[in-house]
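hiii so my PI (J.) wants the whole complex modelled not just the main chain, which honestly fair. so below is everything: two entries, each one labled with what it is. i double checked the lines twice but i was tired so who knows lol
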Amino acid sequence: MTGTIDLNMVNAYIPGRADVGAKTAATISRRDRLLGPAYRLMYERPLHIVRGEGAWLIDEDGRRYLDVYNNVTSLGHCHPRVVEAICKQVATLATNTRYLHDTILELAERLIASVKGTDLAHLMLTCTGSEANDLAYRIAKVRTGGTGIIVTDTAYHGFTDAVSQFSPSLGMSVDLGAHVRMVPAPRVYHAQGIDMAERFTRDVAAAIADLKRHGIKPAMLIVDSVFTSDGILPDPAGFLQGAVQAIKDAGGLFVADEVQPGFGRTGEHMWGFQRHNVVPDIVTMGKPMGNGQPIAGLLVTHDAVAQFGRDSRYFNTFAGNTVSCAAAIAVLDTIEQEGLIAHAARTGAALRDGIAALAARHEAIGDVRGVGMFVGVELVKDRVTRAPDRETTSRVVNLLRDKGILLSGCAMGHNVLKIRPPLVLNSQQVDMVIQGIDESLAEAALGMTSG
Amino acid sequence: MTGTIDLNMVNAYIPGRADVGAKTAATISRRDRLLGPAYRLMYERPLHIVRGEGAWLIDEDGRRYLDVYNNVTSLGHCHPRVVEAICKQVATLATNTRYLHDTILELAERLIASVKGTDLAHLMLTCTGSEANDLAYRIAKVRTGGTGIIVTDTAYHGFTDAVSQFSPSLGMSVDLGAHVRMVPAPRVYHAQGIDMAERFTRDVAAAIADLKRHGIKPAMLIVDSVFTSDGILPDPAGFLQGAVQAIKDAGGLFVADEVQPGFGRTGEHMWGFQRHNVVPDIVTMGKPMGNGQPIAGLLVTHDAVAQFGRDSRYFNTFAGNTVSCAAAIAVLDTIEQEGLIAHAARTGAALRDGIAALAARHEAIGDVRGVGMFVGVELVKDRVTRAPDRETTSRVVNLLRDKGILLSGCAMGHNVLKIRPPLVLNSQQVDMVIQGIDESLAEAALGMTSG
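here's the output for the full assembly
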């Protein structure tokens, strides 16, 4: 078995493309045999990681990599406060929500407080972001009596059967549901000056009309509020308002998928939707929620979930278990006590500014954008046509890996560097990333010319 | 808010039915406010648990309850070996399957070895049993080109949008998919001597024919190999063979849902399907896999997953993380080193025999059955008609709770005591359970007569 070639996944390991060395080749072959053909690895030469520490990952040979990609370990790998919370709780009690327990109630109180001023009133817990989006859809169907879904054209919302049907970024081989409509992602860089608020509103309204024309009642508009897999598209703040109003007017729900932007990453608020000044009916969350512990969930208005709660009991054996809740509380404590939201704003801005300054000497840099600890760097073949440069992006990602800096790519054109550092990144580490990108772009340009 | 009345869930807490005391009432009301209307509690007077230890759960007032219900903490609550494995790994590295790591490969090797002699070749990991069954369905659809599903009439396979559509035990308000057919569960006690192998085969064949008659190509037959929510129906061993052959002949897959029976609980093998001498295309697993840590997954043949693996990459951020894999390896080690499969057989048999002996003085006991540490006690109004006695079952479950013994109910008639002790239950604890059931049945009979 030689593994599977997935040209649809940005930065997938492609067997045979690079010499990975005998030891890694043996591990990959063992893995293919044991885990089968559906698993993918990252990088031309995959990493065998054995330890994590702050912003660092350490491989089997003791080499250190600055991890500016994993947005799960948002507080840094193995944050002592989370480790302590997990170890204490796992030795005391790990059980489920059919008994009363205080940790889940404390967690709910804290998270509901983070959306004060909205009608979002209840927390429901899952183990993964996919489960959260799947549950959001079940709730939306019951509330609206509809099934129609609107997503952006390179959205990723998860892997369950229902959610994969509204995750176009999974590629052409995974069918979208007949009840799903795509709207173009808000690519301001390619909008030729058109007002994005107007255009996005118009596109969502057209999708609603098309659903209705096919006899499909709209259930929800769901967007990642930073449009991560679409290419990291946070601006202009507020452009979502018209689209949110359109779906609500059509009787559908607005679901903010905060699995990636949530928990302070935007450096402005706890949640990405808050900078757009819109109010979701459901907010889904996950990845950094337990800094690695499997926990995810959603906040929902009472109105949205009332009928669902009468009709369907909700029970998820592991979700809301005392250990996962304790981890999530430790995450919230740490974000607050280490002042990580403000830190993410400052450090993220420095990172963006530093990369933007590189544009003067690297023609490939078309656009540098982001918010807080979310940075997207769009690489183009030509600044006039703005044609995506997938090859350079892939080259730069792999050169950076060789220099000990881990990030990846995203967007429909596979040409946006996706940088999601832990919120605790320090300024020395920011400089390392900027320098690494600078060197890699230079080397990539050289390689392309000579190659 | 007063919580939701769910008459469809066996042993659900029903607001207002019993005096729960001011402290518990306040916690329930806080919980309703924070978690909303879809969550349920167990028992007329819900428990507020704060600590677990071996087979015991301890409530906020320090009262100890013998837990013979939670089949997640199969090694006992807070098993030191699992706690140690989690604490060690969580302080070292908690990351995902896009990097190479040895724990997932070791876990895969161990689990694949448990199905030696079959074509089951690959392990794929999820966080929950629901996700595992959801993924099994996605794989079955791609492999077969069909969508049709056959389940038993009180089956529970999970809560995702797709899986809830083939989980009839969720009740009438949760619609089954139009592509789902139910067959009667193998209720030998009600079969009036009819050969169960023949009947079950015939029912599955009829369901296949009906799917085809509606233009729906069969994708899979999925059964919990002990038919837990159907009422714990393990016998006669081997009766599944004809049905499995029928679905394979129709081009569908056979999926063994081992989320509840797996990991040695049957006291005979690692997996429940093995006692039926059938070979599944997919085996899903979960609950006891990490003794509380959220981990689940599936074993699958290369043939079943080959096309899926080419078309769809599979990535689940938290599934296969190093911490969950370390917990699962510790569980496998413990089952082996403490000889828990053989122990489950011996102790489970003693438990069943002891309860069966009670039938001499309790007319309500219609049938006592099970395998290993799975025991079902069917309570009837009358041993001739075998009419389900839901009221007595509910009474007994709640009387036992008051005596400090935790179990629950199952089956379509809500009249089967569901007993799933940790595999480590000792003989003194077995006697406690038998004595508790004895006393509770006596009290329930008295209450029914006088009431």
